[in-house]
Amino acid sequence: MIIDAKKKLRLDLQKKRRLFIQKNKKTPFFHDIGPFFNNFIQNTLNVPSGSIIAEYWPLKDEADCRPLLTFLSQRGFFCALPYVEAKDAPLSFRSWSLEDTLTSCPYFTGLLQPFESRPLLTPKVLLIPFLGFDEQGHRLGYGGGFYDRTLRHLRHAQKELPIAIGVGFSMQKVDLLPTTPEDEPLNWILTEQGLQQAV
């Protein structure tokens, strides 16, 4: 029942996001958000420069946070990108810098990731794309479960809990997402309207 509801919602939200992007070509809000987000990271979350932040390389119509990735890298944060080890495994994160080239992920068509030779890093903050979200911090992804497995692994493996920030557009918000026990919630949501903490 929940699986069917999620499947339908994914299709609806993908179509809705595609139309939103087509009508709003000038939505790269991450070009201007760097100073604000840097202040939030350091002063609200108390995550100092030099910490590890995992971001993502955009897929399809996902919000493009590459300008933010560049900004944080230039401000002394160590940046990492997801690396898919296997279909049913948690994601690992490998170092990324401005001069790096990426390679195609063999498990996810169209996804780019660091080369296996890049060092493995454990992030303190994760920026995570979504198809949908609600105020409680529930996240709807593509159905592969990669980020749920990853957050569960990191939250059990680390004494200091990682901070999960969902990234997307405000029009992707739904009243209440259907959830299962396997779903891992987000701590914060970042959209073009700003940041909100999950309640």
Q: Classify the secondary structure makeup into a structural class.
A: alpha/beta
CATH class: Alpha Beta
**Quaternary structure state of the chains depicted:** single chain
In DSSP terms (H or I, runs of 4 or more residues), the helix count works out at: 4
Which strand-content bin applies to the residues? 15-25%
Please provide the ordered H/E string of secondary-structure elements. Answer: HHEHEEEEEEEHEEE
Distance between the termini: 25 Å
Any low-confidence stretches, pLDDT <50, length ≥5?
none
- Overall structural domain count: 1
- Number of DSSP strands? 11
| CATH homologous superfamily (4th level) name | NagB/RpiA/CoA transferase-like
Strand order of the largest sheet: 3-2-1-6-9-10-11
What is the average of the pLDDT values?
A: 93
Largest sheet: 7 strands, mixed
Query: What is the 3D shape?
Result: globular
Radius of gyration from CA coordinates = 16 Å
Textual characterization of the structure:
With 199 residues, the protein is α/β, with parallel strands linked by helices. It has one domain: NagB/RpiA/CoA transferase-like (Rossmann fold, 3-Layer(aba) Sandwich). 29% of the residues lie in helices and 20% in strands. It is built from four helices and eleven strands, in the order ααβαβββββββαβββ. The protein has helices at 2-23, 30-44, 66-74, 146-157, and strands at residues 52-54, 78-83, 92-96, 103-104, 112-113, 125-129, 132-133, 139-140, 163-167, 188-191, 194-197. The strands form three sheets. A seven-stranded mixed sheet has the order 3-2-1-6-9-10-11. Strands 4-5 form a two-stranded antiparallel ribbon. Strands 7-8 form a two-stranded antiparallel ribbon. Helix 2 (30-44) crosses helix 3. The model has no long low-confidence stretch (mean pLDDT 93).
